[in-house]
């Protein structure tokens, strides 16, 4: 399927990940999936809060295993002067530092951008926080939940007669993490083409990435004064677009985002008359009569079982798919063919199925090599190989709770 020679595209990039929880760690993980050497720093006593996030199996944190996969883990107390000096020595040897503490925290520890960039002028620093490094809200604590609310996302998510609705997943963190990874690659590319090879600092909030995808609603309000409302599984831009229930109680998602696709749908359900019906001839007209249209499509689907619905509609060129829960994802043959999931070998859990790397490169694909590290698992390796510390020095640092 590819010409992979074993080389990973980012294997020469070194990242020092001093972040916690979800958004910023995801950013470095996305690059670790393609070979970046990521050293994950945790507090020697408390560890990362992400170890206590989500479900556990017999006391073993599950999300941690995949959230911080492909990384090496060390412990280091950044609030202590000795820990700060060790951090600076590590910074001198890396391309990237990732952190997501509240603005001012790294400065309080004498580890701000001005200090670190003086140590390593080529350094790129990613700083991910709830509200960014500047502005009146910068010092506020911020999690993805607040970002999802303040970005405007929840105002368009949920049923028309219900409250603004938060997502059932860490959406703001995930989107911010993806933007963080993208921003790091942009900065690395710019540095490679910069004659002085100088790095730069990247400031990402949790709310602005979500705003980027609310563009249709933002420009509609700016130009037309329209405030987007909640329409459940429907759409303010496209009709038909909804979730429809089949005869046996399964659900399908269906979209007519292109005129030709909608025309294929009308033909497939035996309603070619709808092509010339003045209520449904164009998308604009369909939006005005969306309840009538949903009743027609929903009625046709409700009389048939899932397999029949999919066979007929796929055969016609309509755009439709089953709505899965997580138990059904790994059963889909297409997902198997694409290797959308990969099996991790873990000494605590045995085999563990996790999402695979996303983008599939033809020549240098990424891969999932290892699960998230144990607390301080690579202390000896990193501190010996990177900083040439002796066993006696390491023991003293451990005794003083620096590592």
From TrEMBL:
One MF annotation (Gene Ontology) recorded for this entry: CoA-transferase activity
Among Gene3D superfamilies, the record links this protein to: Crotonobetainyl-coa:carnitine coa-transferase, domain 1 (3.40.50.10540), formyl-coa transferase, domain 3 (3.30.1540.10)
Has keyword DNA repair?
no
UniProt keyword list: Transferase
What SUPFAM superfamilies does this protein map onto?
CoA-transferase family III (CaiB/BaiF)
Determine if Transferase is one of this entry's keywords.
yes
Q: What is this protein called?
A: Acyl-CoA transferase
Q: Where does this protein come from, organism-wise?
A: Brevibacillus panacihumi W25
The root-end lineage is: Bacteria, Bacillati, Bacillota, Bacilli, Bacillales
